[in-house]
Design brief:
The protein has helices spanning 55-61, 77-80, 87-93, 103-112, 176-182, 204-214, 231-237; strands at residues 2-7, 37-41, 46-49, 69-71, 97-101, 128-132, 138-140, 143-152, 155-162, 165-167, 187-191, 218-222, 242-244, 250-252. With 253 residues, the protein is α/β, with parallel strands linked by helices.
Length: 253
């Protein structure tokens, strides 16, 4: 299984519009962060984790010519803002694209893209086939997926474990019974917004404490803001089993 980090930035991306800080002005390509998303590839499947506003750019950059499904974590716009661009894959496959998500996320998508669910014969609308995700394990093709519930302030968000890989975004707290689902992962991906406290996202220190608790072999930070710091500086400060991810990074399991 190959995982590609399509985007590793928070909702505003990095650089942030109008900002002149040293991170936003950095010339290091690793400090250029599109909105958070990932691509999972096996021999017979290609799955996108979330479909944010930079979806089109991410697909073109990685030369993705087909996807089999989208696995959604929640309905916030920085994770759903690129859904209109799935039309290209509708045309390629000549059918709706499978969206695996829970009921609140489905409702959020239908509200944001209400025009796509109207009674019309207009052929150029994004077409989705919703597959309901609960807290029960499920399969996408040959992949076994275990849902993990994390809390984004007071909002439940889905994280997912696929084999030895666990993907967590937009978390502030993770209950003990949900952490138990992570244990034994070889690779964990988790959000680490910045050093300063935030009401709905893990800080760098809080994310490190999760790592110390669940003990994956390797951890990659995602959903980082410009306040996270320069990639090169943070890489030196973090322990060797924790790396800040960057856009375009590929890992294999």
């Amino acid at each position: 299984m190959e995982i590609t980090f399509l985007g590793t930035g928070t909702s505003g991306g990095v650089p942030l519009i109008g900002c002149q800080c040293n991170v936003c002005k950095s010339t290091d390509s690793r400090d250029k962060r599109l909105r958070t998303s990932a691509l999972i590839r096996t021999d017979d499947l290609t799955i996108v984790m979330d479909c944010g506003p930079d979806f089109r750019q991410q697909m073109l950059r990685e030369d993705i010519r087909n996807i089999d499904a989208v696995l959604m974590t929640h309905q916030h716009k920085d994770h759903t803002g690129g859904i209109d661009d799935i039309r290209s894959f509708n045309f390629i496959n000549r059918k709706p694209l499978d969206f695996y998500c829970d009921y609140p996320t489905e409702l959020g998508i239908k509200e944001q893209y209400s025009y796509a669910f109207t009674e019309t014969d207009y052929p150029y609308l994004p077409k989705m086939n919703f597959v309901r995700v609960t807290m029960e394990p499920f399969t996408i093709g040959t992949l076994n997926v275990i849902p993990i519930q994390v809390m984004h302030a007071n909002m439940p968000v889905k994280a997912f474990r696929i084999g030895d890989f666990t993907y967590i975004t937009d978390a502030k707290t993770i209950a003990p019974e949900e952490r138990d689902k992570i244990r034994g992962s070889k690779v964990m991906v988790i959000n680490a917004l910045r050093s300063e406290d935030h009401y709905s996202h893990l800080t760098v220190e809080e994310a490190i404490k999760v790592v110390e608790d669940v003990k994956p072999e390797m951890t990659y930070f995602i959903h980082m803001s410009h306040q996270f710091g320069l990639h090169a500086d943070m890489e030196k400060m973090l322990p060797p089993n924790i790396r800040p991810a960057y856009d375009g990074l590929k890992i294999n399991l």
